[in-house]
């Protein structure tokens, strides 16, 4: 019994003098980076980091709606990204924690350089995750990082952090997969600041919005389609965030339709050495406004024509910009790799006006709202 008491006493003494975690830091003594921005000029990388105090942005019952949330933005420069990342720690006053990074924003000057340099440098930091949203922009990064959401909510409620409410974002791991696949253009959404749409009383309130898509060839940005020219790409996403279109009939708006889901397929075919790409899209939606007493079936056909025109127009804009918005070449590589290699060797961008074959679009309207629609 005496021996047992000695063992228990010694164990309790060891537990008392040993710390729980040797390298732990108090959470209040860390600077939590939520977004990284990278620019390139004068042969140097310019790195920006957005830092938030989570005690100010945490959602609690006593949170004051509309209370201004302070945003801190740090900047450093270096010949390499690693140097810039190291320098920013020198003035942060607290240990920098990268595990909460959710967004990376790259300027056009960075996108014109080999993108793998940026990706490899960032991904070497073990704390930074692969599934973070990536964007390109023409705006100043300092302007992007100080943007707040409606009601002066924190940047965590802006388009950068919750883009899926408006469009399908792309994460870092998916983007790396895209630019690594043969025949894949790689597509990165662009964001900009809209300074005209919102007011807080009489004061203008800028907000973030989608500004098109950047496309890549050989891991370098080679084209940009602005938002009006890339509308056909929105029908590629399986889940669509209630995209509203007007359905015309005899020069007038017959109805407004909201689309909620899509099944989009690219089918390459090879006949007599000629490659054609057929596109099939099947969408579902519902009627939100009806101005003409037309049947649901007819409205579905007219909505399909609108979407078909979107698909054709975006393809033509892509040809002018030498980009492949529907990733047709990648579809060819997956089904006919030998033919793809033959065509790519003859001409890197082999798509032509007549490369697009049949474009078949079907729209099923499953709901007519609180009012019944004609079925005949």
UniProtKB/TrEMBL annotation:
Keywords: Germination, Lipoprotein, Membrane, Palmitate, Signal. It is a lipid-anchor. Residues 24-193 form the Spore germination protein N-terminal domain. It comes from the Bacteria. InterPro entries: GerAC_N (IPR057336), Spore_GerAC-like (IPR008844), Spore_GerAC-like_C (IPR046953), Spore_GerAC_C_sf (IPR038501). GO terms for biological process: spore germination. GO terms for cellular component: membrane. The keyword Hydrolase does not apply. Gene3D superfamilies: Nutrient germinant receptor protein C, domain 3 (3.30.300.210). Residues 212-369 form the Spore germination GerAC-like C-terminal domain. It is found in: Membrane. Belongs to the GerABKC lipoprotein family. This is Ger(X)C family spore germination protein. It comes from Cohnella faecalis.
């Amino acid at each position: 019994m005496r021996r047992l008491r000695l063992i228990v006493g010694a164990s309790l003494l060891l537990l008392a003098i040993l710390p729980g975690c040797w390298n732990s830091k108090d959470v209040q003594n860390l600077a939590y980076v939520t977004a990284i921005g990278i620019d390139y000029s004068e042969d140097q990388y310019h790195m920006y980091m957005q830092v938030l105090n989570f005690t100010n942005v945490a959602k609690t019952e006593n949170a004051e709606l509309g209370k201004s949330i302070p945003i801190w933005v740090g900047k450093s420069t270096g010949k390499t990204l690693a140097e810039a990342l190291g320098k920013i720690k020198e003035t942060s006053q607290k240990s920098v924690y990268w595990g909460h990074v959710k967004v990376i924003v790259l300027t056009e000057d960075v996108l014109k350089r080999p993108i793998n340099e940026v990706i490899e440098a960032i991904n070497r930091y073990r704390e930074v995750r692969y599934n973070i949203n990536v964007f390109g922009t023409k705006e100043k990064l300092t302007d992007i990082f100080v943007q707040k959401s409606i009601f002066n909510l924190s940047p965590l409620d802006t388009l950068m952090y919750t883009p899926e409410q408006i469009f399908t974002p792309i994460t870092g791991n998916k983007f790396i997969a895209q630019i690594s696949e043969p025949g894949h253009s790689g597509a990165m959404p662009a964001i900009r600041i809209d300074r005209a749409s919102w007011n807080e009383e009489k004061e203008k309130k800028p907000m973030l919005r989608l500004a098109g898509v950047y496309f890549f060839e050989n891991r370098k940005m080679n084209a940009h389609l602005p938002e009006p020219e890339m509308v056909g790409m929105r029908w590629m996403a399986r889940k669509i965030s209630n995209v509203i279109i007007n359905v015309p009939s005899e020069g007038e708006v017959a109805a407004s339709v909201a689309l909620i889901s899509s099944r989009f397929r690219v089918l390459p075919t090879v006949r007599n050495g000629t490659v054609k790409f057929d596109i099939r899209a099947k969408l579902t939606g519902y009627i939100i406004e009806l101005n003409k007493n037309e049947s649901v079936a007819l409205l579905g056909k007219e909505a399909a024509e609108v979407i078909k025109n979107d698909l054709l127009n975006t393809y033509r804009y892509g040809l002018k910009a030498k980009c492949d918005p529907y990733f047709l070449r990648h579809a060819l590589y997956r089904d006919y790799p030998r033919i793809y290699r033959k065509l790519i060797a003859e001409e890197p961008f082999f798509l032509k006006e007549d490369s697009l074959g049949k474009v078949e679009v079907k729209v099923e309207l499953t709901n007519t709202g609180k009012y019944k629609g004609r079925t005949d």
